[in-house]
Amino acid sequence: MAQRYDRAVTIYSPDGHLLQVEYAQEAVRRGSTVMGLRTNNAIVLGVEKRSVGDLQEERMVRKICMLDDHVVMTFSGLTADARILVSRAQMEAQSHRLNFEKPTTVEYITRYIAQLKQNYTQSNGRRPFGLSCLVGGFDESCWSGIFYEWRANTTGRSSQPVRDYMEKHADEILTIADEAAAVKHIVRTLVSVSSLNHTQMEVAELKYRQPLRMIDHQVLADLERTVRREIEAEAEASRRPRAP
């Protein structure tokens, strides 16, 4: 029955679903886990890194992209779709600079991406973009993280357990004041929930009016060891019998 309603993105099923949009959402659920935190001074993004072949150029596999000097984006889903979306967003950001002689705001470029993705759900001969994006950055007038002003958010394959973990530790997240603590929290979340090691993750940091900085793999390795020791210590403490 579903095959009758999924041949075009503009056709609703009898229960009110756009099946091709739901197929695109499934591509996101199967994509890499990504997450982001906003501190007082920086945007920190962490992504699950897929394994790279021995002969493959590692610099070609990036899921953290600059849209402008002050806006960064990461994504979960189809990388080929992301290349198109990133390219269009970068061109829009440069066009905004040319036309208005000032950088785009984070909200403007996020609305542009959302509008572009929505347009692909209303025209025949197209299919929806199979990715979900996290956009962060800084404005001249006010600081803005992700479009809905999240202090932390996630998307991708393990987004639900990651979100549950972050909500469980919401008190810690809301008090994060510096990027070092945010980087450690991202590493701890990815290790605890997704069982990743430092070779399977990438973490980046964007500060106001500073270039994007990728966190060194040795730093991630040290943080991973620290986090695993802390987790083991907490598990050991929970197994000890409580004194009456």
Description of the molecule:
- With 244 residues, this protein is α+β, with helices and mostly antiparallel strands.
- The chain has a single domain (19-49, 61-230), classed as Glutamine Phosphoribosylpyrophosphate, subunit 1, domain 1 (4-Layer Sandwich), CATH 3.60.20.
- The protein contains seven helices and nine strands, in the order H-E-E-E-E-H-H-E-E-E-H-H-H-E-E-H.
- It has helices at 19-29, 79-100, 106-119, 159-168, 170-174, 179-194, 217-239; strands at residues 34-38, 42-48, 64-68, 71-77, 131-138, 143-144, 152-155, 201-207, 213-214.
- Strands 7-1-2-8-9 form a five-stranded antiparallel sheet, with helices on one face.
- Helix 2 (79-100) packs across helix 3.
- The longest helix is centred in the last third of the chain and has 23 residues, at 217-239.
- It is globular and about 60 Å long.
- The protein starts with 18 loop residues before the first helix and ends in a 5-residue tail after the last helix.
Key descriptive features of the protein:
244 residues; alpha+beta; Glutamine Phosphoribosylpyrophosphate, subunit 1, domain 1; five-stranded antiparallel beta sheet; 9 strands; 41% helix; 19% strand
